[in-house]
Amino acid sequence: MDEPRWLDEREDRAWRGYRRMRRLLDLHLARDLMHDAGLSEPDYDVLSDLSETPGQRLRVRELADRMLWSRSRLSHHLTRMQQRGLVTREECPTDARGAIVVLTPQGRRAIEAAAPGHVAAVRRHLIDLLGPDEIAALAAFSHRVVENLSDAERSPPR
Amino acid sequence: MDEPRWLDEREDRAWRGYRRMRRLLDLHLARDLMHDAGLSEPDYDVLSDLSETPGQRLRVRELADRMLWSRSRLSHHLTRMQQRGLVTREECPTDARGAIVVLTPQGRRAIEAAAPGHVAAVRRHLIDLLGPDEIAALAAFSHRVVENLSDAERSPPR
Fold this sequence. Notes:
By secondary structure, the first copy, chain A, is mainly α.
């Protein structure tokens, strides 16, 4: 391997800041969500994705892709959410392999009750601390990073 | 609660981009690190923090604070790293409660072998995709977010 291109001081500061921000944000947002609404972040993501979808239903496979979870991990999680009455599962009529997860009325009430507090926490801990230029920069580079990694995902492994 | 201030379109785009970037980056960096060096991200953080410290040693408590892990979680992790020969533990001579973790020569070789590939992955997946203004913006707002959350940490819980 060639001599590594170590991060310079500015880059190192950005990278360390990012890592620490990510850890602290994860921790606080998860804590607030559990404290205020009794939901974990994956619970919230599932309920939120379903509530924004026509018919309030998604294929398990599609939901797993969005969450970057394996189908079996998501399946176990959905079983626990089902036991709490937040979702149900149906077989897909056109594809025997494609189980579908559906938001229940109780799940809808849970996400509607949780959303205002969660948005307030996202504002308090992140969004309201950034100026308009920083919001624009975050939106631009995060989507670029996601695009680049999604391309890497589609390419054959190294 | 007052009517929630929902995110506007720009803010929502930044927040969704951030969340997806965080998930994908975590996944790819962890995957590359395990594949190239046989280390998990917490392994890397422990070795990297120790290697940058005078005497290559830290109190377990100090290391746990940096990683935002509980001491018992870190202790279990260190036991496994100790079994692999990467670190050892000593009692603190001045404080019976303060165990100290020390990098071994094998741990030093592991971090020196892993660092070039990890830095290359951090560049490839994040840093080299950002322009100088974006690097500066990320450094500035991430440290602001961290500072704000650290202040919240020090205040009494709500």
